[in-house]
Specification:
By secondary structure, the chain is of the alpha/beta class. It has seven helices and eight strands; from the N terminus they run βββααβααβααβββα. A five-stranded mixed sheet has the order 3-2-1-4-5. Helix 1 crosses helix 7 and helix 2 packs across helix 4.
Length: 176
């Protein structure tokens, strides 16, 4: 049995999260994923992005500290491969390219800012689809800090995914 670890970093509007999973390959070559470690840091980047249309220096500094901490946790776990995605808050910030560049320069971690459709597709790729009756119609909903993603699955296949600019941090900012 082959065993290694991978990580996923999600830079969201409400929090920055990291999941480390074992990648387990059995003797027949089938691959399984098993959660090993999870870290969530509530940075609330959306507070800046949705109100001021940019990420402040203080939030950038906090983000760098968060990403560096995740980088060292990945090192302790022996993670060799990772993906780091940013969603709604950075997607909408006017200074998102500068933030990406500063994060890369200060941490060595490359961040990809993904659009809402890719975010919805990633969410709907989760394994709960297999746990449901494949002949049923299922709707997967992820309400985040800056956006809400919907994915419709029919007969075990995704038929449509959609992202909406509706989220908890975004709505809280409107009430202030």
């Amino acid at each position: 049995m082959d065993l290694s670890k991978i990580a996923a970093i999600d830079i969201g509007s409400n929090a920055v999260r990291m999941l480390i999973s074992y990648v387990i390959k059995d003797d027949n070559g089938k691959i399984y994923f098993q959660k090993n470690s999870y870290l969530r840091l509530p940075l609330r980047l959306g507070e800046d992005s949705f109100k001021n249309k940019s990420i402040s220096e203080s939030k950038i500094d906090t983000l760098i500290n968060a990403i560096n901490s995740m980088k060292y946790i990945m090192k302790v776990h022996g993670v060799k491969y990772y993906l780091a995605y940013a969603t709604s808050a950075l997607r909408e910030a006017k200074n998102s390219n500068a933030v990406k560049s500063i994060v890369k320069s200060e941490t060595g971690i490359e961040v990809e800012i993904i659009d809402g459709l890719k975010e919805a597709r990633i969410i709907s790729n989760a394994k709960p689809i297999e746990k449901n009756n494949p002949f049923r119609k299922n709707l997967y909903v992820d309400v985040g800090g800056g956006s809400t993603e919907l994915s419709f699955v029919q007969n075990g296949e995704k038929t449509i995914s959609k992202s909406f600019n509706i989220g908890t941090v975004r709505n809280l900012n409107k009430k202030k």
